[in-house]
């Protein structure tokens, strides 16, 4: 084989591999990328599970982080430096900054003029869970719809693949 032909074959196989990877990703439901920040992990998981930043747009996180003294009836105030660092992390990985199918859908489900503080109130969430009864969410083993991790064991890693869903009794 001539050198230039080998080159073309090589390029061809690289391209088809990345196409395969991309479609595999789509089949997996286009999971959110694993992201982490030490302060976010310690400060935002003491009262509930960690909510992946890709589940809400930047404007929602921004609104939430500027009202931590009245966070769903709790005082979750942080010192300014910690708050700013967590905010930068959330913004960088927010639904409207992510390049994955799931985040894009979440973003699209929220009107531009809205900045919901609850993932569970987005149209994306309600449409994905319209077959789960309110009574199921209230089970002792679950608590509420906000406790994603009860049914999606890898929720904190941003993995909501259907193959990973298990509803506890
Ligand atoms: C002092 C306790 C506390 C801390 C600390 C805390 N939260 Fe919360 N958070 C709550 C409570 C209480 C709720 C409402 C839970 C419910 O109604 O089920 C909530 C709800 C949420 C929700 C909405 C979940 C839904 O229903 O869709 C998000 C998102 C959230 N918190 C993010 C954060 C982030 C980000 C941090 C860190 C900066 C944080 N929380 C720190 C107490 C806390
Ligand atoms: C009671 C268990 C339960 C809880 C709690 C729960 N979910 Fe789900 N979730 C499901 C089920 C069941 C489905 C699949 C619905 C279907 O296929 O009809 C689903 C589907 C999804 C999907 C779509 C998966 C796909 O690829 O089609 C996403 C994303 C998702 N949930 C995110 C969340 C988030 C975020 C939370 C927390 C804020 C959450 N879920 C809380 C049970 C739950």
What's this model, at a glance?
It is built from seven helices and no strands. It is an all-alpha fold and 169 residues long.
Please report the total strand number as a whole number: 0
Q: What's the helix-strand series? A: HHHHHHH
Helix content: 40-55%
Number of helices: 7
Radius of gyration: 19 Å
Question: What portion of residues belong to β-strands?
Answer: under 5%
Topology:
Layout (H helix, E strand, L loop, with lengths): L2 H25 L10 H6 L14 H8 L14 H13 L8 H8 L14 H6 L5 H4 L32
Helix pairs in contact: 3-4
What does this structure look like?
- The structure is a single chain.
- By secondary structure, the protein is an all-alpha fold.
- The protein has one domain.
- Helices cover 41% and strands 0% of the residues.
- The protein is built from seven helices and no strands.
- The chain has helices at residues 3-27, 38-43, 58-65, 80-92, 101-108, 123-128, 134-137.
- The longest helix is centred in the first third of the chain and has 25 residues, at 3-27.
- The radius of gyration is 19 Å and the shape is globular.
- Mean pLDDT is 88; it is low at 14-28.
- The structure holds heme C (2 copies).
Keywords, separated by commas or semicolons:
globular; binds heme C; 169 residues; mainly alpha
């Amino acid at each position: 084989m001539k050198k230039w032909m080998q080159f073309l074959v090589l390029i061809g196989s690289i391209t088809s591999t990345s196409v395969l990877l991309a479609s595999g990703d789509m089949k997996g439901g286009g999971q959110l990328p694993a992201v982490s920040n030490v302060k976010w992990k310690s400060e935002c998981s003491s009262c509930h599970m960690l909510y992946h930043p890709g589940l809400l747009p930047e404007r929602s996180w921004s609104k939430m982080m500027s009202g931590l003294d009245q966070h769903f009836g709790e005082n979750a105030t942080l010192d300014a430096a910690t708050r700013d660092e967590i905010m930068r992390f959330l913004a960088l990985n927010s639904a409207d900054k992510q390049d994955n199918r799931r985040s894009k859908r979440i973003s699209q489900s929220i009107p531009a003029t809205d900045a919901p503080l609850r993932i569970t109130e987005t149209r994306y969430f309600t449409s994905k869970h319209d077959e789960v009864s309110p009574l199921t969410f209230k089970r002792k083993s679950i608590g509420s719809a906000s406790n994603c991790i009860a049914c999606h064991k890898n929720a904190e890693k941003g993995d909501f693949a259907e193959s990973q869903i298990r509803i506890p009794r």
